[in-house]
Amino acid sequence: MSAFVKHISDADFKDVVINSDKPVLVDFWAEWCGPCRAIAPVLDELAEEMADDIQVVKVNVDDNQAVAGAMRIRSIPTLIVFKNGKAVANHSGAVGMAQLKNFVAQAI
């Protein structure tokens, strides 16, 4: 895992995501999810490339069901961009780097 991607929990979601000064890309995932594992290196690369513009965090839906439920996560991986404390874009399913950069750029 990249030093640029932070794993967070239900307990710190508000502080890390909602109260963030910069946009946050949240990856809702689970260890048993193949597509989640496939997208992980892409998220690591994006987090490093865009560290000045966006923070990337991961929320394990098995361990953090309160946030996953509140966000109405129905499939994983689900990516949600938060800006100024509000969800502004979401995408379900694995994506490549070009698609991910485009998704984030449009949201921020």
Automatic annotation (TrEMBL):
GO terms for cellular component: cytosol. The record marks G34, P35 as: Contributes to redox potential value. Keywords: Disulfide bond, Electron transport, Redox-active center, Transport. Coiled coil: none annotated. GO terms for molecular function: protein-disulfide reductase activity. Disulfide bonds join C33-C36. The record marks D27 as: Deprotonates C-terminal active site Cys. One of its GO terms (biological process) is cell redox homeostasis. InterPro entries: Thioredoxin, Thioredoxin-like_sf, Thioredoxin_CS, Thioredoxin_domain. Gene3D superfamilies: Glutaredoxin. CDD domains: TRX_family. The active site is at C33 (nucleophile), C36 (nucleophile). Belongs to the thioredoxin family. This is Thioredoxin. It comes from Hahella chejuensis (strain KCTC 2396). The lineage of its organism: Bacteria, Pseudomonadati, Pseudomonadota, Gammaproteobacteria, Oceanospirillales. The gene is trx2.
